[in-house]
Amino acid sequence: MNVSRDGGEYRWALPSVLLGDGEGRPVKRSTRDWVVDTAMFLVAAALTVLTVPDLEKFPQPVQVTEQVVGALACVAVWLRRRYPVVLSLALTLLSSGLLLVGGAAMVALFTVAVHRPFKISGFALLANLITALPYSYFRPDAVMGPTLTSVTAIGLGLMVWTWGMLVRARRQLVWSLRKQADGAADEARRLERERIAREMHDVLAHRLSILSLHAGALEFRKDAPPDEVAKAAAAIRDSAHQALEDLRGVIGVLRHGQGAAPSDTAVPERPQPTLADLADLVAECRRAGMDVTLRLPELDETPQSLGRNAYRIVQEALTNARKHADGAPVTVAVGGRPGDGLSVEVRNPALARPGPRIPGQVLTGIPGAGAGLIGLTERAELSGGRLEHGRRADGDFVVRAWLPWTP
């Protein structure tokens, strides 16, 4: 114990290692806490009442003292949440000489075992076991005698302490499982947001690059015929509309993930692209002025996720070709079969080949985030495949992917 002088008064305090964190702090009880505390009070009171007949052999003053102190000990049980360690030690010391304090002391020991770590509850248990010896010697049971009385008291203390430790271990296990579940939910939300970010990068980069192509054509060909200007303007309008639709869908998903009201989040997901949509993607690029050759043989019906991943790889590769190899012809080759996997290759010269430009082949410095190929690699690896990219000896830039195709 420590002694400190404060304002001319001496104050005694137990070491903090024995008190534990939270000792003496105000307690806000929930409905469940009130029910449990009431049950603990009733248990202490019941044990006290059951031991009252054992006082008949003692003088009347001793019986009155026992009854008053026992009643006060039962009332003190209501302080078990705010002062568990202090209450347990005080009641343990009183129980070494008083009979009717034993029930409240057991409740206090149980509370310490539940709410404090082993280094603190173990000390409380040790104090309880030590005080059982003088009680058994000075006030032994008439039938059991001092030895059997001390063994019974020690066994009861160990049983109550063990019960409290089991309750504490169960609570810690439940807390740990809840924490793991919360962590898993957070991880799932993070992965979902990363998936949405990849989808938005693939979709918006393609849409905006097409839009930039047509806008660059209008800027380059200021004397273009009215029908070409109208066609480019229509393409810009369609690309902007599609980009807004994609953005709206993703915002709807994000709002749903943040717990918005169901009426505000009833945004249906747009159909995901598959291999069957590659022809439309290539046709859109051709209308924007790209020279794209598609080699897509007849394939068995592919799983939806496989087709979507292949489509996104081709889409991002075409977007990069528009950014970095303006005017160069691009070859897209897709092939495979169940069991062997699906292969995707997009090839284009690393630099644009010289030659006349046509409207729609003008790029006005489309910026890049530098994450497209990294995202494609991650997409392929997450699906169990692989992706490689780079410039080859013949000068062509190649994006080649292999994706597993389970029969």
TrEMBL record:
Residue ranges occupied by any DUF7134 domain in the UniProt entry: 32-171
TM annotation in the entry: 34-52, 85-113, 150-169
Superkingdom as given in the UniProt entry: Bacteria
Pfam families linked: DUF7134 (PF23539), HATPase_c (PF02518), HisKA_3 (PF07730)
Listed CDD domains: HATPase_UhpB-NarQ-NarX-like
Keyword annotations of the record: ATP-binding, Kinase, Membrane, Nucleotide-binding, Phosphoprotein, Transferase, Transmembrane, Transmembrane helix, Two-component regulatory system
Domain Histidine kinase/HSP90-like ATPase: 310-405
SUPFAM superfamilies: ATPase domain of HSP90 chaperone/DNA topoisomerase II/histidine kinase
EC number: 2.7.13.3
Protein's name in the database: histidine kinase
Source species of the chain: Nonomuraea longicatena
